[in-house]
Amino acid sequence: MKKPPRLAMAILMRLGPREEPLVGDLIEEYTTGRSRLWFWRQAVAAVVAGAIRRIRLQPVRTVGAMTTGWAVLLLLFGLLGDGAANGLANLVWDWDRQTMGSGTGIWWPFQICAALVSYTGFALSALVVARLHRGNPAMLLAYVASVTAGLIVSAVILEVLIHRYDGVPVPHTLFYLVSVTLPFHWRSGLLLVPSIMLVCGLLAGGGRPNKSQEIRESRG
User: Cα separation of 30 and 53, whole Å?
Assistant: First the structure.
């Protein structure tokens, strides 16, 4: 029997609404001839609609989840950002900000390590939100959406400022937040950040096993 795409089904089960009839209908439609793209669209739509419905029902909890995530993120970058990036660059490439960066203009070891620190910070903040709101994936999705929106806005602002001025000073804490959206990182953070956050959040328990698992197995 024709089976739905595994990844789409996993996302639907972990992040979607706990509605067995909905999932069952989607599987039945797919097995009768619908395309993989159709199933993906329906799965994503179900996840988004379910999250929006839950967020509307729990606005205070949603704001709390986003505030917690941002606080953890900025705290990690403020306290550990420079120390972790500089230490890693020194450990791997024997790079030092004072003796090498200032004198030779070689910054790529720091840029690579700063990106690793940035992605780690995003992942850890998502993990915290997921653990605090285990079984309620809408809170994780709301936080990830807020970070993604923040990155998009910051990328646009930085693009404008870079074209207007020779240099754009960014506070160290915020550098680790926006560096992955800068041109020398090819704006990679706009795709990688939400992806990494969702994966880490789900691994930490941000989603929930959906009872529609039984439906899939019975139809498989």
Answer: 25
| Of the candidates 153, 196, 146, 203, the residue with the CA atom closest to the CA atom of residue 178 | 153
Which two structure tokens, joined as six digits, stand for 128? 């915290």
CB 95 within 8 A of CB 111: no
- Walk along the chain (220 residues) in steps of 10 and give the mean pLDDT of each run: 83 78 85 89 92 94 97 95 91 80 73 93 96 92 97 91 80 90 88 95 69 40
Reference 129, options 58, 204, 208; nearest CA is 204
Backbone CA torsion sign across 150, 155, 161, 164: negative
Contact present, 70 and 146 (Cβ < 8 Å):
yes
Contacts (Cβ under 8 Å, ≥6 apart) of 147: 69, 70, 73, 122, 125, 193, 194, 197
Does the CA dihedral 68-71-77-78 come out positive or negative? Answer: negative
